[in-house]
Amino acid sequence: MRRNGPLLSRFRSGWNPEPDGTPRVPAGLVAAFGGTVLLGLGGTALAGVPVVFSITAAVICLIVLACVYLATKPAPADSVERVLYRHSRHYHGRYLILEDFDYAARELLGRAQRAIDHILRSRVNVIGMLDSVRNAVMLPAEEWEIARLLTKLSELRARHRHLARGGRSPEVAAAMAPMERALAASEAAVVARVKALERYAAHVTQADRVLVSQGQIEVLRAHLPDYEQLVAETGAARFLAPEIGHLSEDADHLRRALRDSLHSAHEAFRHLDGPGSS
Predict the structure, then answer these.
(1) Average pLDDT, stretch 251-260?
(2) Which of 39, 163, 255, 275 has its Cα between 20 and 30 A from that of 240?
(3) What share of the chain is helix, strand, coil (3-state, %, to 5)?
């Protein structure tokens, strides 16, 4: 369903890929073509036309009939359209489509989805350095909650614009002002949730970057003895020993940076739980 949004929109607009129970080819059409074939054969026989022409006419009629059959044949029972249509009816009210959101809501939802996708696909999450199980459960739930709130906002904003379309007297403007403040406050609350996701994604990005750097440093350290041996053999130790020694310090620094980045990511994740979480 997530991959076939345009089809869900078509279902919402009234399109139904399911068969209606009528024959694949109307019976009248079959009878008409059958009669045409018989008349053609009989007429050509009476007129003394060779039988080969009668057979050719019959074949042409059958080809046309086959084309009509294929054109009116419903989709297979397991086609994507029909399976998706059944799912859309079964899960009615438990999914949303693009038309449920206004432009501002679509932009916010896109930001939330990009942040969640980045977190779930990150290396530190895949290898289990984050709480990947909670991420897999809570982040989609947070996406749904944000989407649900954004659809309500979109609906109320559209209704509000419709009410204000004919112009507003001072009395009407005063009556609508609290509603406008409620819309603005609600939107700010949803924006705060999206920004919390983006902060979490930013910490995860930093942890990913440090993890990659740490891996590269460890590879370099594995080759360090070869360089130390070369330096010793060439008598260049007094020139390069301090610089080579910094490699171990860099590795230690990256380990601390990775630990700090993961700690920050965990803190950002706990912030998503809301107040009262442990």
Answers:
(1) 72
(2) 255
(3) 80, 0, 20
